[in-house]
Amino acid sequence: MRFVVDVMLGRLARWLRLLGFDVVYRPEAHDEQLIAIAEAEERTLLTKDARLLRDRRVNGYLVKSTRWDDQLREVIAEFHLRDLIRAFTRCPECNALLVAVEKEAVRSRLPQKVYEEQTGVSLCPNCSHLYWAGTHVERMSRKIKELLGG
Ligand SMILES: [Zn+2]
Fold first, then answer.
1. What are the residues whose beta carbons fall under 8 Å from the beta carbon of 25, sequence distance 6 or more?
2. Ligand 1 geometric centre to CA of 9 (Å)
3. Is 9 exposed, middle or buried (CB count within 10 Å of its CB: 0-12, 13-18, 19+)?
4. Is residue 134's pLDDT more than 90?
């Protein structure tokens, strides 16, 4: 399931990526560009703007909820995404799939404590962001469970 989201849905985009979904989010893109991306890349356009969905070329969905956590639940339910969730496999910043790296390879970029304690480190091959299990991930795991009811 691949998506492109409009400018109103940035937080939803980030969380969908955190759950492993392929989401294009270009806050600077015009309506016409969003429609073109949806069409060319066969993505479902998630939008708060009903006008965008009048374009017959576009396969889209009007998000009804206003709060981002309700939006996330709504989209997961609407597209039956629950069993497809692969949390923490994709970069929430840029949408690239993360790759596991040896911590020795990125030692200079890791805080000492992280280097000593962590076994798994993931790297975004696109924006070079590093991720590891820690308080941040634990917090988000809890939030995901809370959002999705376990
Ligand atoms: Zn990235």
1. 4, 5, 9, 10, 13, 14, 95
2. 19
3. buried
4. no
The predicted pLDDT at position 55 comes to 82
Q: Which of 118, 145, 143 is nearest to 133 (CA)?
A: 118
Q: Comparing C-alpha atoms, which of 16, 47, 56, 48 is closest to residue 144?
A: 16
pLDDT in tens, 71-111: 999 999 999 999 999 999 999 999 999 999 999 999 999 99
Pick the CATH number of 2-84 from 3.30.420, 2.40.50, 3.40.50, 3.40.630: 3.40.50
| Tens of pLDDT, residues 7-34 | 999 999 999 999 999 999 999 999 999 9
CA 50 to ligand 1 centroid distance, Å: 30
Give the predicted TM-score (pTM) of the model: 0.91
Residues whose Cβ atom is located within 5 A of ion ligand 1: 91, 93-94, 96, 124, 126-127, 129
The full set of domain ranges for the chain reads 2-84, 99-148
* pLDDT tens digits, one per residue of 45-55: 999 999 999 98
